[in-house]
């Protein structure tokens, strides 16, 4: 059977039988294993190019421009053979049909005509280990160990492209901002084109642009506001689509205190006029604490002219602390403003989330209050987990940078919770992952967007996260959102934080270099570590103590020692942790996506040109099934509690999707009653406020499962998920 021809394939038929229960109602999980075996036998084995030796394999791949030669020359063949011997000895097997199908369909290197496979999972693992280790044999072996046991999953762009001669970039997504002038707007559109071309999802802050009706060269009413720029950006992403292989992806952010906020939200409404409707561009809003305060008090809220604010404060609108300056802004007659009811805007946000899943919510004051870095966080990315300080650029009429600001690229990877908890050395595992992601950061040079390149060169930022949390809960008989599950999450992320700090400090010491402005950070003065030296963060319940019985738990004294080491030698990375939503890589690792609860015990996944593939939840069995509650049947406050516990230890953010039913199950939320069973904007408002209260920095999509089994607000982000 040909690689592309699935006509007589038995594996899809077997896979589909998973969804057909037996007469006694049993799920036919054995059919998934049968489908996996059939796929390997019918599709992979006949179409895999065989080589007699590693030397022959690499000679062929280099000669035909499939892999880079330079990185392989860093290692003697005897070492590469040693690494392969180790990988083969680990007897790796895919655990599900979906895992194998996803890998071979999307990640495995193929011949130029697409008719044969040139690598197995072991080969892709070897390429990643060798490439990311950059000639360090000890690190290459360590990474091979992490990858083959699926404790570490690099981001899709990294895992896919490592070692390939003809490849895309290794980074996942980007954050850029525009200031209030035509040169900057033009540069922003060009940057969106360039970044979309290389495959990245792009977050764009439009907050600094003057509002519709603001003056241009003292002509009142001349400005058109943010909507025309949004249309230009949408067209840019549609045009720059990697030769038609994928739709360009972008999100635009605007403050709730921007005068165009109502018009901004209106472009996604179902009944929006096609002249103003934005179809493919995602929307996000930045929400200062002051908005929650005004809405709670049912007060009017002022929307401030960004142009006037910049004239008064001398910095772009995004860089003014609205919560702190609100009363001063209101009282300043030189700043034009208009008023709306805060609760009316709150309702508009809820309505749109019901209709479309948008907008993303960025609690910008929460992000900055917890930010240990000198500077201001003003936005997030396409999946809402990246939060880093930025500085604006100034561009002259010759389109040259008078002042080169800093924007953001995302260098991501994930730990697999289930597998990392089996690591023989948790700290060594994290160090290997941090070093791998650091190499991606070090070699990333996005020259077409200088502000992105500049930001990366100064910050050395990475984003290590996690997936498979619900899997771990189910395996250990914990319900999602139970007290012990929340406690486990906190300890796990405390360990990620501790060991990533240790690794970053070690790199700073080895290289004699820290991230830019380290000396102005809360790491440098030691204050960041106060919460760890003033209380214990280890497990307290017997259940969670047992789960971590073989894992080193840092004491207050250990944190104090780390604090002194960081104050002395610094950190290499400005940012270290972020939790992305996870896409196809969670399937390869047989992990539940990110920190989220599963949507269904048997997920139906629509695959292009193939149809439906059924994917049982990882480790689903009679033993775990009752612990696999659907996200749509879980009180979202439990999900918020899980994410909030992790957020305490994550310097950036966590991409958190909320899952709602259009008809709320009886008894789920105490404020509902039998007469009010339909999901309402009030429900979403209460949950957004609860998330804000718990310290959540961002809310990604709101996904609604309707009474006719449709999903509104489904995650369509392909470039940023990992």
From TrEMBL:
It holds the Pfam family RNR_N. The keyword Nucleotide-binding applies. InterPro entries: NrdE_NrdA_C, RNR_1b_NrdE, RNR_lg_C, RNR_lsu_N, RNR_N, RNR_R1-su_N, Rrm1. This is Ribonucleoside-diphosphate reductase. Keywords: Allosteric enzyme, ATP-binding, Deoxyribonucleotide synthesis, Disulfide bond, Nucleotide-binding, Oxidoreductase. GO terms for molecular function: ribonucleoside-diphosphate reductase activity, thioredoxin disulfide as acceptor. It catalyses: a 2'-deoxyribonucleoside 5'-diphosphate + [thioredoxin]-disulfide + H2O = a ribonucleoside 5'-diphosphate + [thioredoxin]-dithiol. Provides the precursors necessary for DNA synthesis. Catalyzes the biosynthesis of deoxyribonucleotides from the corresponding ribonucleotides. It comes from Fructilactobacillus hinvesii. The keyword Zinc-finger does not apply. NCBIfam families: NrdE_NrdA, RNR_1b_NrdE. SUPFAM superfamilies: PFL-like glycyl radical enzymes, R1 subunit of ribonucleotide reductase, N-terminal domain. Residues 559-581 form the Ribonucleotide reductase large subunit domain. Belongs to the ribonucleoside diphosphate reductase large chain family. PANTHER family: RIBONUCLEOSIDE-DIPHOSPHATE REDUCTASE 2 SUBUNIT ALPHA, RIBONUCLEOSIDE-DIPHOSPHATE REDUCTASE LARGE CHAIN. Its EC number is 1.17.4.1. The lineage of its organism: Bacteria, Bacillati, Bacillota, Bacilli, Lactobacillales.
